[in-house]
Design a protein that fits this description.
The chain has about 650 residues and is an alpha/beta fold. It is about 40% helix and about 10% strand. It is built from 20 helices and 14 strands. A six-stranded mixed β-sheet has the order 1-2-4-3-5-6, sandwiched between helices. The radius of gyration is 36 Å and the shape is elongated.
């Protein structure tokens, strides 16, 4: 009883935990009130050699992927565009355009090295895992990419995410470079809407909206704008964008001793947890909550971003207005499937446009990740106010940066062209007019076909118990029922005269339809393929019309279609072990010797009982001992139908 549990707890409350557990188990009490913890801490699984030199190996891999596009700066974790490899100072890229550098801790790829390219970054400085790069590396990158103004250098802009280490190290390198006569400015991006504006002096974190700054500033530099102009554009975009992340599971960094299970544990009600507003290093967000639907996640994220707003003339206003055109970036934080990303994108954009906005540019993919974090972020940039038409053109400027995924711009019209569906091509069922089909040269075809089909279908239906018995041993037990469904459908259509027996072309096509509508499973598809192939084969016969020999050829073509599409062959322990011998016998007699055909099918079906290896179907999973002595039910079904056919045409 509960009173007994309380009594035991009171008596042993002062004992050590191990003794406490022993007493409870001795009394038969399972301690359900005690907090549960995982029995074993799972060790993280990563594709890695050694965490200590993983950044070096990452750079090696990057250079293997882009042998013509990228270069490493000697002695530094710095990647530069290959144009900076020119030895002639007159050909130095900084003579004609402002250089752009960005960087930070590793683990956010493709940020930032993936955005090195024409009309984007000139280079990137890579820190350790989630660690700011050193002043020395940043200064080395500036020196390599930026000439002194006395030598015609156009200057350099540093685009920095708002983290204390990044601000200090990039800032120090900026000042040192300026002291050397290089014109360098710095823009700090703080787009994360998860941090309250008045929470200390640190301010909002820099997250995926930083990529917008890369693109706009890169486009400006590519057009030859000077350092002040490029900086102004970068600051405008930085001040206009808002971002927010969410995650179902947080990040586990390479080299960690155990998996970060912060979001793996359920709440008190047993609900799976997620987090809204966490940072790109796994920093705590706004709140943890039970897992929500895509639509509800999108609703909360957009509400937070909109209420966080942006600063205009020293006032906080909503980030976007109902009539604004928007650039929307839905960023994969590293461990989310493309399928889920598309679902979240739908939820976000649908809700934005339901509020009156127009998302003219929707970018979806991995832009700024956090290793394996199972999450996503959304960054929204309104194309209004300080974001001019000319600035939008900078976003659309082409780049060869490998990490940039260009937007498919929608600007004209009240609805996207993609919303207009391409009309499905509807093919009317062939009425099978006599003048459109080869004539039938088989005596009394319609009467014989009606009789034979009815008898074969009935025999197959009656054989359900036998087929089920065999398939229960060597398959999944559904062969008899599946064949019976198809047989009953054929009988029903014969009775309603919806299965045409005027011409073999129509007969086989209608048999395929009947099988398709009733059987299901792989056997249903395979038989449908056989009948359809037989129909199309007969439709194109040459000569005076369809003969018994043509029927034999059509049967053979149908068998080969089953083999081609299904992958099995004669000897695979399938229905083909009856079909192929039967079709060979039928061809040998020019379609006239049905008895030889039936005999060959029976012989082939019987032979499957001695086959100890199945190469297809459920039987493929079974041992020799299980297979031995039981024939393949599909082959038995084929033999039964052909035996009934032979008796019916006597």
């Amino acid at each position: 009883s509960n009173q007994h549990v309380i009594l035991i707890d009171m008596r042993v409350a002062t004992l050590r935990p191990a003794a406490y557990l022993l007493v409870l188990f001795y009394k038969g009490i399972l301690c359900s009130s005690l907090p549960s913890t995982p029995a074993v801490s799972m060790k993280p699984k990563k594709f890695i050699n050694n965490a200590s030199n993983s950044v070096d190996e990452f750079i090696d891999g990057l250079l293997l992927q882009y042998p013509n596009h990228l270069r490493k700066l000697a002695n530094q974790h710095v990647i530069l565009h290959s144009s900076f490899a020119a030895q002639n100072k007159d050909a130095h890229p900084n003579k004609s355009r402002v250089s752009l550098l960005s960087g930070g801790g590793s683990g956010h790829e493709p940020s930032h090295a993936g955005f090195i390219g024409e009309n984007m970054l000139s280079g990137a400085i890579l820190g350790g895992i989630f660690a700011s790069p050193s002043v020395n590396s940043i200064l080395a990158a500036i020196r390599a990419s930026t000439l002194p103004s006395s030598e015609g250098g156009k200057g350099c802009l540093l685009i920095v995410k708002n983290y204390t280490g990044d601000r200090l190290n990039f800032g120090m390198a900026c000042e040192l470079a300026n002291a050397e006569g290089r014109l360098v400015k710095m823009v700090v991006v703080a787009d994360d809407c998860a941090i309250e504006r008045k929470k200390g002096i640190t301010g909002a974190r820099g997250v995926a909206g930083t990529v917008f700054v890369h693109k706009a500033a890169g486009g400006a530099a590519g057009k030859g704008m000077d350092l002040d102009e490029v900086t102004q554009i970068a600051e405008t975009v930085s001040n206009s964008v808002g971002s927010l992340g969410c995650a179902l599971n947080t990040v586990t960094i390479p080299g960690a001793d155990k998996v970060n299970d912060r979001l793996m544990l359920a709440d008190d009600a047993g609900e799976s947890m997620m987090e809204i507003g966490l940072g790109i290093h796994g920093e705590a967000g706004i709140r943890q909550c039970p897992l929500m639907s895509c639509d509800d996640i999108a609703k909360e994220m957009l509400s937070i971003i909109q209420s966080y707003g942006r600063e205009v003339d020293s006032k906080i206003v909503p980030l976007y207005n109902p009539t604004d055109e928007l650039i929307v970036l839905v960023n994969n934080l590293g461990g989310t499937s493309n399928f889920e990303m598309s679902l979240l994108t739908r939820s976000l954009v649908t809700q934005l446009e339901a509020a009156g906005c127009k998302a003219t540019r929707v970018l979806v993919g991995s832009f700024m990740t956090s290793f394996d974090m199972q999450g996503a972020s959304v960054s929204i940039l309104p194309c209004s106010g300080d974001i001019s038409k000319e600035m939008l053109d900078l976003f659309d400027t082409k780049t060869d940066a490998p990490g940039w995924l260009a937007a498919d711009v929608w600007s004209n019209g009240s609805s996207r062209p993609s919303e207009s569906e391409i009309e499905e091509v509807i093919v009317e069922k062939n009425a099978g007019a006599a003048e459109d089909l080869p004539p039938v040269l088989i005596n009394d075809y319609s009467t014989v076909a009606q009789t034979v089909l009815a008898q074969c279908a009935q025999a197959l239906s009656d054989a359900e118990p036998t087929l089920t018995k065999y398939d229960t041993i060597v398959g999944d037990g559904d062969c008899g029922i599946t064949m019976q469904r198809g047989a009953k459908e054929v009988l029903s259509r014969l009775e309603s005269k919806s299965l045409r027996v005027d011409n073999p072309v129509n007969t086989f096509a209608d048999l395929a339809d009947a099988v398709s509508a009733s059987m299901g499973g792989s056997s249903g598809v395979l038989l449908e393929l056989m009948f359809r192939k037989a129909s199309t084969s007969l439709q194109s016969v040459s000569g005076d019309g369809i003969t018994s020999k043509d029927m034999a050829v059509a049967f053979r073509n149908g068998c080969e279609a089953v083999s081609f599409y299904g992958g099995a062959q004669e000897g695979s322990r399938t229905m083909l072990d009856a079909m192929f011998p039967a079709s060979a016998a039928m061809l040998a007699g020019d379609g006239a010797d049905i008895h030889a055909c039936a005999s060959a099918a029976q012989k082939g079906a019987d032979a499957t009982a001695a086959m100890t290896n199945a190469e297809a179907g459920r039987s493929n999973y079974l041992s020799e001992e299980v297979l031995m002595g039981t024939p393949d039910p599909g082959a038995v079904a084929v033999a039964l139908v052909l035996e009934t056919l032979a008796k019916a045409v006597v």
